[in-house]
Amino acid sequence: MEQNQPNYDLLNRQLDGLLSGEQDFIANLSNTSAFINQFLPNINWVGFYLIKNDALKLGPFQGLPACVDIEIGKGVCGTAVSKKETQLVADVNAFPGHIACDANSQSEIVVPVYYNNEIIAVLDIDAPIKSRFNSEDQEGLEQLVKTLENHIHL
Which among 53, 70, 129, 142 has the fewest CB atoms less than 10 Å away? Predict the structure, then answer.
């Protein structure tokens, strides 16, 4: 599906400005999810899952109510943590063990968030169309996460 790609370089600079000066982790996650939701077209959910007690716990997000707890290694989010790499899924229905929080979601991308070389969260974005995300989105969203990481003060 052809779509207008966001200007990730511009979005990265805008996100850096938005987060500058704020020390609170949850506030920065909240603003990051709202920011991505505003500027990324054709998505239906964006948010964070935080690592707590060796599992993923729902954090700040934009979209419909979501699954609260996800085991490490389960679903797309848990797989991103266990493999320590971004998961780009063109068709969630073809992903073994996909956790369907929203039946409208058709594709997904999950980017690990690091602090002190350890994954502390994941950015999770769902779309209501198959193959919504491509390598340019992956690169751009990984860069946005790096900008967020520069503003984490735990």
Answer: 53
